[in-house]
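Homework help board

Subject: predicted structure for assignment chain

Our instructor gave us this sequence and asked us to write out the predicted structure in token form, then describe one feature. I got the tokens but I'm not sure how to describe them. Can anyone check?
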Amino acid sequence: MEEKIEKKSNYFRNTFLFIIFSIISLLLMDKFYLQSVDMKLLKQQKREHLLNLSKDEPIQIGVVWPFFLEEGNNYFKEGILFALKELNKKKLLGREVEAIFRDDQWEKEEAKKIANEFANDKEIVAVIAHDDVNLAISSSITYEHSGTVMISPAVSSPNFIKKNFDYIFRNTPSDRVIGNKLAIMAKDLNFRKIIILNSRDTYSEELTEVFTEKVLENNLEIIYSEKFKEGEKEFLKILNDLSPLNNYAIDYDAIFVAGDEVDVPKLISNARENGIYAPFLTGDLLDSPALLEIGDAANDTIVATIYNAEMISDKMQDFQCEFKKEYKVAPDTWAVQGYDAMMLLAEAIKNGDSLDPMIIKSQLKYMNNFNSVMGTYSLNPNGDTVNKDVYFKVVKNNKFKYLNF
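My token output:
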């Protein structure tokens, strides 16, 4: 019997070691391929081409986003186009700026294919890309080793920005900032007893980890914690454990939940049907019309956001007014982020007075007090945002209402 147990143990150990070895081998193959002579040569050729671009040729910026989403889901593309219209009134280094749009379809292989296309295209000066952490991280390796500047307007994962990368940036706060702010907000609202729920995807795990750390630092109490699978339909265990209809003993003030625009609204809706009426707290991914689609069930849900439409500033008011004239809709978070990413990139090109990717990335690394429509913020040498504000909204009567802190 002991011999069988030992053989079984050895089998699982060897299988585990084989899987780990295979993953490491694939990563090393990818790394050495990207750092090969061909990739280095491509990097140099791109620089030389851009430095010798004739004066009448435009500045081409690659833009990658899930454009297959229904119109009205977000206005990211309109934000990019609005920035181009503004830049092309004055010209950037005396040139027109053009966007080359590609749809990543929320597919990793498609994102990699586009990354290879843009990395090999000597006309592409830089790339604004992705709202999905897994797509962004895998693509960033290609952009980094080909010397192509990449800015993500949406990916907040701490793991997206790597200390040893030079060409990768974002114009959105890290989940470390957002998670901390959510925990502080919970304390300010006197939510002393917290439920923590999260999906098993990368974004949700990372945001939850940060939030949990800060909750404990602030001496708040975690009453219950549970994970759910992406695409889960019923959430039976969670609802059974938390519903006062089934569990009279459980006592809590608020429920933190991290997940995507499909799972979180479904969970909240099911919770309300099961007599759970505590406020929900969630990250900026739910700064989305998808939350409002569940109607009254969304009431009292608090979401983090990086866009404050009620900000009182001449620059913001002008932006909102002109955008609405152009597109007949008010700008949303992603319109602002698309516009901001393009203007941030343009500022780096203008300050460096060059299309050389090495100069552009150096300008971004030390960008100080960039004057965006959402106020000033900076970038650090790692490529992360510094001092970019996080705001909060609560759902009331099927509308988002800003909270003041």
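Reply (TA_rk): Your tokens look well-formed. For the description, you could write something like this. Confidence is low (pLDDT under 50) at residues 1-12, 14-30. That's the kind of observation they're looking for.
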